[in-house]
Design goal:
alpha/beta; three-stranded parallel β-sheet; Rossmann fold; six-stranded parallel β-sheet
């Protein structure tokens, strides 16, 4: 069993980007500039945005954090997005989700300039991805493809089961894995909360991408020997033995599933770090597109 080490691979990618940024600086060119908009004080979002800012510093990107209070109105947020769209110094930006309940997420994401949408959530980028045209790929699915490629995991002709149908992971993952690409050419099945006899599908899978948001849902008896496991989930599970009072768990019961897997991502340290690395890769791409 081989651990798909997202932490190591993401560091490799950051080193590669840092080398490109160093060349840009040596030529006197503008370095990539990533902005993040954070509304409110959601703990996970604050941690995630903080990690993005640190990653920018490490590789030589410029970064801007727009930190807005919980009570920010939808109109005020849209005004900030308008300013970012029209700021030539900003190459790409993200609006951290989830947003407070009084703000329409779809309306906000639609307002982002597709050419600066480094999260890959705008319908223009989703459409281009679906048609296999150049676009910003959503960072998490993009990171999963990169992990599979760098560990030389064979996907061509394999049966991939994607658990979950979210716009952020499940749906784009199912499209990308079926396309003609290095980590692709697979036969894809999407299962979700309404799927009957779900375990029948997972037991037949060569590769499983678990992204349903239920901690430790996928058990050892639901997979076959040699399966490749990509665990996208991350949930805080109460645990009195831990100093923080909780532990982080994925959608996969690592203990039982890892005994059968040929490759598996850990939680934490698997898909999470890759998401940030690919966001940086998209920002570099945005900078190159604007030059």
């Amino acid at each position: 069993m081989i651990i798909l080490d997202g932490k190591k691979v993401s560091n490799d990618i950051k080193d590669e980007i840092a080398a490109q940024v160093a060349i840009m600086k040596s030529k006197g060119e503008k370095v990539p500039h990533l902005a993040a908009v954070l509304v409110g004080t959601d703990g996970a979002s604050m941690t995630y945005v903080g990690a993005k800012v640190k990653a920018c510093e490490r590789i030589g990107f410029e970064s801007t954090l727009i930190d807005l209070p919980e009570e920010t109105t939808e109109q005020e947020l849209l005004s900030h997005i308008h300013n970012l769209n029209n700021n030539d110094d900003i190459d790409g930006f993200i609006v951290q989700l989830p947003l407070p309940k009084h703000i329409d997420e779809q309306k906000v994401l639609m307002a982002v300039d597709p050419d600066k949408d480094v999260d890959g959530f705008h319908p223009t980028n989703v459409g281009r991805m679906t048609l296999d045209l150049p676009s910003f790929l959503p960072a998490t699915p993009f990171g999963i493809l990169e992990l599979l490629e760098r560990y030389n995991v064979e996907t061509s002709g394999k049966h991939v089961v994607v658990m979950g149908r979210s716009h952020i992971v499940g749906r784009p993952m199912s499209i990308l894995m079926s396309q003609k690409r290095n980590a692709g050419n697979a036969t894809v099945t999407v299962v979700h909360s309404r799927t009957q006899n779900l375990a029948e599908f997972t037991r037949d899978a060569d590769i499983i991408v678990a992204a349903i948001g239920i901690s430790e849902f996928l058990k050892g008896d639901m997979v076959k020997d040699g399966v490749v496991i990509i665990d996208v989930g991350i949930t805080r599970v109460p645990d009195d033995t831990k100093k923080r009072g909780y532990r982080l768990a994925g959608d996969v019961d690592f203990e039982s599933v890892s005994k059968k897997a040929s490759f598996i991502t850990p939680v934490p340290g698997g898909v999470g770090p890759m998401t940030i690395a690919m966001l940086l890769k998209n920002t570099l791409l945005a900078r190159e597109m604007r030059s």
